Amino acid sequence: MPASARCFLSFAHFFRTFRQVLVDLGRFMFLFSRPRVALTAENLLLRKQLALFQERKVRPRRADDFTRWMMATLSQMFQWRDALVNVKPDTLIRWHRKGFRLFWRWRSRPVGWPRLPKDLQELIRKMAAENPTWGEERIANELKLKLGIRVSPRTVEKYLRNGGPVRTPDPNQRWLTCVRNHAKAIVACDFLVVVTASFRTLYVFVMMELGARRILHHNVIAHPTADWTMQQFREALPGDHPYRFVIHDRDSIFSRELDKGVTAMGARVLRTPVRAPKANSVCERFGGTLRRECLDFFIPFNERHLKLILRSWATHFNHGRPHMSLGPGIPAPLQQSPPANESRPGIPAGYVIRSTAVLGGLRHEYALERVAARAWEGALRRSPRRDTLRTVTGPISRDGQPFCGLQGSHRLRGRHQPGLLTGISRNGDRNGPEYAREVFSAVPTFADGYVDVGDQPGLGIDVNEAAAKKYPYLRRLRPTIRRGDGTP
């Protein structure tokens, strides 16, 4: 049966029951106006008729919900055990308990938090669609760390289940690290194998800091050697490095000479036990993460192509990817923490969501951006008052419209004088107004899209004080210099 038909039948049943309850309540209130003797006589007459009904042994029909509710309610007003005829006492008690259970189920129903705003629901579904390998926790961490929106992973799962793609968590992503003590002083390294489009085998060498989960160094080679590996350690571990231990497996490329060289650099080498990948679990796990999030979607053509892919993904891994082992956190975030939003989840006022594609759209990074940073140019170009100086910022265009420094309309002593301070005219006068040359001995000129300050000494220093008295400074005409993001 369709859901709409079931909803209609439920509403019709509720309407019929409610109507019968109102009718019986009206009758009950009417009986209050009758004398007690009349009620007693009517009650005795009804009992006689009920006795005749029992003698005929007619099977009564099944009681509906209205009859059950009414009998359970009226039984609380008198001694009902002697008045029961067609119903057993246990049945009446069961009806009373069922009604009490339904009442408290309604009173104890979970209220929960209000639903998320529509724009935030669409953002969650968008992040899930653009990043197929992300789970509920990853999306919740992305919202919390980069956008300042605190949303539970269960809430994310609910909206993905109702209106988005099905999100099944990968059991391989649940792991516990065994290295917790001295994590900031430990560096782990390992080799990964990648096959190119021409079926050539390449080796990726990775070094990670366990405390911050940050990639210190990575490189690609077709035929690794001990000398090449030692050179990678020299590039990754400078002379003043704070690390005390280096973990690697028992591969033959990590020779004893290499271990001695690393020890001479001030780090103690820790070899993992035989066939114990959990001893170097961070690097082993990193290899799986690299394949699932990056290499499974690319087929590198050669060594140079693979280096370009790894360079872009390593930047995203260090500066844009949340890590659960950090609380969650980001190893080396480039942006500041988003503003705290402890109230109802939502996008902070005055901000918009900026999405940045990584690896050609394979991954996306999200950040908060002030609305003023986008609208500053239009706000600065609005028509000002007639007695103000209009200023804009930015580079100088090729068509002669300056966007750098002070330029615009200046109303001075009833005359419209463009380009007072820079000497660059918007109306086509590239040599500046005459009164600027009268005050300053050296004036910049505009030619071929460039501002030429000239070789004449005294720029901004030599001033004709007698001529400057003709043009007094007015405080209300003070210009406003703005940065590229629109802030003063």
**Mean pLDDT level:** 75
Order of helices and strands: HHHHHHHEEEHEHEHHEEHEEHEEH
Spatial gap, N to C terminus:
65 Å
| The CATH architecture of the domain at 183-301 | 2-Layer Sandwich
Structural class: alpha+beta
- Give Rg in angstroms: 41 Å
Give the helix tally.
14
| CATH classification class of the domain at 183-301 | Alpha Beta
Helix content: 25-40%
Strand content: 5-15%
Biggest sheet features:
5 strands, mixed
Task: Using the alpha-carbon principal axes, give the shape.
Answer: elongated
CATH topology of the domain at 183-301: Nucleotidyltransferase, domain 5
User: Low-confidence spans: pLDDT under 50, at least 5 residues?
Assistant: 169-178, 373-432
Strand order of the largest sheet: 3-2-1-4-5
Spell out the CATH superfamily of the domain at 183-301: Ribonuclease H-like superfamily/Ribonuclease H
Written account of the structure:
- It is a single chain.
- The chain has helices spanning 3-31, 36-55, 65-74, 89-107, 118-130, 136-147, 153-163, 226-236, 256-264, 281-293, 303-319, 371-380, 434-439, 465-468, and strands spanning 186-195, 201-209, 214-221, 245-248, 268-271, 351-358, 363-370, 409-412, 415-418, 445-447, 450-452.
- A hairpin with a 2-residue loop joins β10 and β11 (450-452).
- The chain is elongated, with a radius of gyration of 41 Å.
- Among the domains are: 16-107, no CATH class; 183-301, Ribonuclease H-like superfamily/Ribonuclease H (Nucleotidyltransferase, domain 5, 2-Layer Sandwich), CATH 3.30.420; 383-488, no CATH class.
- The chain contains 14 helices and 11 strands.
- Mean pLDDT is 75; it is low at 169-178 and 373-432.
- The strands form 4 sheets. Strands 3-2-1-4-5 form a 5-stranded mixed beta sheet, with helices on both faces. Strands 6-7 form a two-stranded antiparallel sheet.
- With 488 residues, it is α+β, with helices and mostly antiparallel strands.
